[in-house]
Design a protein that fits this description.
Layout (H helix, E strand, L loop, with lengths): L4 E4 L9 H15 L4 E4 L11 H14 L5 E2 L13 H13 L3 E4 L3 H6 L21 H8 L5 E4 L5 E6 L3 E6 H5 L2 E4 L7 H11 L4 E5 L6 H11 L5 E5 L2 E2 L15 H6 L4 H12 L10 H4 L13 E2 L8
Parallel strand pairs: 1-2, 2-3, 9-10, 11-12
Antiparallel strand pairs: 4-5, 5-8, 6-7
Bound molecules: glutamic acid.
Glutamic acid (GLU) binds next to loops.
């Protein structure tokens, strides 16, 4: 039996758009073409952005596209919703705390953005280390005024890996990333922690996701190492860009699955467009996700982002 385990990890913060469908199709094909196990994990930790009805829609849209999974989702015994796994994240956070790797950070968002610090690889301000060396007395005093976030102290170390599509990538954690947050001041566990714990505990061996998350991989590889989880392989797939060159977002409602389904397009025509843009087929044609399985190979998948024209191909 194949030992490949992959996952869909959507955040239910809106309707799925074509870019999300593009990454999900490639993640699914990579697993199914290897006879592997596919998991669905609903990444709904942020109560300000995520809603259960969006999660249901994501599941319905995946099914409509012809993409299935073996475990996870919202229902059933094998449900995997991050919002139901908070105690698990708290446990791993505790291990890191016991190792002395965490410290409370009292900086406000405004303070972080005001500091003219250089930017980290993901575009956010590099944390200047303001709260790194607060004395225990100062920490206690400040905690009476404001609930802190928890940050992890990163080492001055280079993390390098080879991405299946993007090739060699490296980052020095201290220089390019900085100490990062593992629990927000409102108590919500951070994506970086949850994703590592879940991929580790669920036995994920390959991560296929959008290229915008490439810069998260070094942090995740390092956390896997200190939490003693094996490293999965990574493939960061191209992003779909709007006609004016912006990355598609949940605000591009004309390109979300709701609008596309309402326009009367069939799943095969949508999957055919995605497959054509990815490089898996060399002319636009209607095709089902299942029919693509024997055609899948990472060697055919393009690395560059795909800029969509004003009109989607109609077939
Ligand atoms: N939940 C993330 C997203 O929707 C994906 C995280 C991941 O694949 O690691 O962008």
């Amino acid at each position: 039996m194949s030992t490949v385990t992959g996952r869909f990890a959507p955040s239910p913060s809106g309707r799925m758009h074509l870019g999300n469908a593009f990454s999900c199709l490639l993640a699914w094909l990579s697993v199914r073409s290897a006879g592997g196990r596919m998991l669905l994990r609903i990444e709904d930790l942020d109560p300000d952005r995520c809603r259960p009805d969006y999660a249901q829609q994501v599941e319905a849209d995946l099914r409509w596209l012809g993409l299935d999974w073996d475990e996870g989702g919202m229902d059933g015994e094998t449900a995997c919703c991050q919002s139901r796994r908070r105690e698990i994240y708290a446990h791993y956070l505790n291990l890191l705390q016991e190792d002395g790797l965490l410290y409370p950070c009292f900086c406000t968002r405004g303070e972080l953005h005001a500091a003219s610090a250089p930017h980290a690889s993901d575009g956010t301000p590099l944390y200047p280390g303001t709260c790194r060396r607060l004395s225990p007395e100062e920490q206690t005093r400040r905690a009476t005024l404001r609930r802190p976030a928890l940050r992890i102290r990163v080492p001055d170390r280079e993390i390098a890996f080879t991405d299946r599509l993007q090739g060699a990538y490296r980052e020095n954690l201290a220089r390019d990333c900085g100490d990062f947050i593992l629990r927000r001041s409102d108590g919500v566990h951070a994506y970086q922690l949850a994703v590592v714990v879940d991929d580790g505990l669920l036995g994920v061996t390959q991560v296929v996701r959008g290229r915008d998350l490439l810069t998260s991989a070094p942090r995740q590889l390092w956390l896997q190492e200190i939490l003693d989880f094996p490293h999965p392989t990574y493939a960061h797939v191209p992003l779909l860009l709007s006609a004016d060159g912006r990355r598609l977002s949940k605000r591009d409602s004309a390109l979300d699955l709701g609008a596309i389904r309402a326009s009367g397009r069939t799943p095969e025509s949508v999957v055919g467009s995605l497959a054509f843009w990815s490089g898996l087929i060399d002319r636009p044609q209607a095709i089902s996700a299942k029919e693509l399985i024997p055609l899948f190979s990472w060697d055919k998948v393009r690395r560059e982002d795909v800029r969509l024209g004003q009109n989607l191909p109609a077939f």
